[in-house]
Fold this sequence. Notes:
Layout: H1 25-35, H2 42-48, H3 53-64, H4 70-74, H5 92-108, E1 112-116, E2 122-126, H6 131-143
Antiparallel strand pairs: 1-2
Helix pairs in contact: 1-3, 2-3
Amino acid sequence: MDSSSEVGVTDTLGRRTGPRQKHSIEEKRRIVEETHVKGVSVATVARRHEVNANQVFAWRQLYRRGLLNETKASSTPFMLPVKVTTPTVLPTERRTERQAMKATTRQACASSIEIELPSGGCIRVHGRVDIKMLARVIDMLVRR
């Protein structure tokens, strides 16, 4: 049981309603590194820093992926030029043929990715895919 005398503002369900805590990348990295000590519990470290244990587990994943490094977090993401094309609208009877062709193509080309955006645009990646870079591109597109 927590014995701190500080009382947080909560709603009727016990959820915190005050402003969110902001932790620097250095602070997150320091907390995560404390959890890597043999015999230390993530929950204990989280309580000591007044952070939810689930948040610490999320930071640990970022740490493993190398995303809690000051240089990587502050650097501008490297972007490649992109060409957005308007999709071709096919008549209904040809659309089923096109879908069958796509399925065949997907099976034949296991090393390609096609992402159709709700706006009608399409992203096609052929060959070897850098998963981290693709995730960053998708994150940037979703944020718009």
